Amino acid sequence: MISSFFNRRAPKLPAKPTNPAMAVVCDGVEKEFGSGETKTLALRGINAEVNAGQMTLLVGPSGCGKTTLISIIAGLLTPTRGEVTVLGRNLQQLSGTQLVNFRKENIGFVFQQYNLLPSLTAAENAAVPLIIAGEYRHKAVAKAKEMLAAVGLASKTESFGSQLSGGQQQRVAIARALVHSPRLMVCDEPTAALDAQSGQTVMTLLRNVALQSDRAVIVVTHDSRVFSFGDRIIHMNDGQVTHIDETPEAIQSSLQSSHGH
Ligand SMILES: Nc1ncnc2c1ncn2[C@@H]1O[C@H](COP(=O)(O)OP(=O)(O)OP(=O)(O)O)[C@@H](O)[C@H]1O
């Protein structure tokens, strides 16, 4: 009798409250690629947070694991160990289909390559995520035109990619990433292919258009010219977080030391 009482399952505890200010929480995230002699430990226990309402930069030398980490946060890769909570959802607890739907609804992507479809106009390109989600074409294109206006391209909605500069193409890519109002924007080297002026414009747009109090933007960057756009900078080296700049003064000092190198 007594033993059956003790063997009873403990009552289910309420789900751990998640801090609504935390858009992303990484807890002991590790990632291995390959096996045996070719095994690479790309992430070695990442503990890091991304706050809603902030632009967080992820910086560090080539090969330190930035793209791997951002891909895990975006649900494109699964960690070998550890857990990632995005917008209050533990990604490891979602099924494959749930993860695909979660990504479609909540995450916008911007990459170094703009990946615009050459046979579509800027408005049609920016409308693609809505059309994939099942929106009527004319409504999707109308919403896409609003987003293009928000990124300063109202006069280019009918242009094709080949008729736009690199900076303009990246702005179309940003409009496309924002068109379904994602709460997390994930940007991998968004300014790498741009000249200084276009890079500044793109970062200004990401701050002004993508960032809101309940939304977060993560930018992987090598480009110290854009450090000053970040609210926080997570520095990585060799698969680990080395330190985090939390204040404008700390960011300024990272900027100065990167210029010193
Ligand atoms: N698919 C893969 N298979 C095997 N190894 C991989 C794979 N993807 C990444 N790696 C390795 O994992 C490590 C981290 O790579 P990652 O691309 O995340 O670094 P990064 O900081 O984004 O680099 P960069 O700034 O050059 O883009 C590197 O050693 C890389 O070679």
Which helices and strands appear, and what pairs or packs with what?
Blueprint: H1 2-7, E1 22-33, E2 40-51, E3 55-59, H2 66-73, E4 81-86, E5 89-90, H3 96-106, E6 107-111, H4 122-132, H5 137-150, H6 166-178, E7 184-188, H7 196-210, E8 216-220, E9 232-237, E10 240-245, H8 248-260
Parallel strand pairs: 3-8, 3-9, 6-7, 7-8
Antiparallel strand pairs: 1-2, 1-4, 4-5, 9-10
Helix pairs in contact: 4-5, 4-6, 5-6, 6-7
What does this structure look like?
Helix content is 35%, strand content 25%. The chain is of the alpha/beta class and 261 residues long. The chain has a domain at 53-78 and 95-246: P-loop containing nucleotide triphosphate hydrolases (Rossmann fold, 3-Layer(aba) Sandwich). Helix 4 crosses helix 5 (137-150) and helix 5 (137-150) crosses helix 6. The protein is globular. Mean pLDDT is 88; it is low at 1-17. Bound molecules: adenosine-5'-triphosphate. GO terms for molecular function: ATP binding; ATP hydrolysis activity; transmembrane transporter activity. InterPro entries: AAA+_ATPase, ABC_transporter-like_ATP-bd, ABC_transporter-like_CS, ABC_transpr_LolD-like, MacB-like_ATP-bd, P-loop_NTPase. Keywords: ATP-binding, Nucleotide-binding, Transport. Belongs to the ABC transporter superfamily. Macrolide exporter (TC 3.A.1.122) family.
